[in-house]
Amino acid sequence: MAMAAPASAEEPTGTYSVARTVVHNGKTDHGKWSFTPCGEGCVNRSDGMEMHLQGDTWRANFGENCWESIDATTLASGDGGCDGHVVVTYQLTKTG
């Protein structure tokens, strides 16, 4: 069950540039994600990931014990390897 969004959490909507960094080697690349609402405390990302607000974090679970999250305030994101360690970090910037 998704938690209701706190008043200070802004739902990501529209287009964002994404700087993606692989933790173990520091390699960075860039891309774009778009977000659309899918209900209260829910957004769909353009790559098909459905994310739900949990506290001040947008989070999606996939696979067995794998996750991805976006901090609702800083727009910093992490992709958790299935062993629980962050393997990729992202920084989002609103572009449209």
Concise structural overview:
The chain has 96 residues and is an all-beta fold.
Structure characteristics:
single chain, 96 residues, mainly beta, Tumour Suppressor Smad4, eight-stranded antiparallel barrel, 56% strand, globular, disordered N terminus
Write the layout of secondary structure elements.
Elements: E1 14-22, E2 28-37, E3 42-45, E4 50-54, E5 57-62, E6 66-71, E7 76-80, E8 86-94
Antiparallel strand pairs: 1-2, 1-8, 2-3, 3-4, 4-5, 5-6, 6-7, 7-8
Number of strands: 8
CATH class wording: Mainly Beta
* Mean pLDDT over all positions: 84
The largest pleated sheet is described as: 8 strands, antiparallel, barrel
Helix content: under 10%
And the CATH topology?
Answer: Tumour Suppressor Smad4
**Which CATH architecture?**
Sandwich
Shape: globular
Overall tally of structural domains: 1
Cα separation of the termini: 30 Å
Which strands sit side by side, in order, in the main sheet?
A: 1-2-3-4-5-6-7-8
Strand content: over 45%
Q: Rg to the nearest angstrom?
A: 13 Å
Order of helices and strands: EEEEEEEE
Question: So how many helices?
Answer: 0
The low-pLDDT segments are 1-7
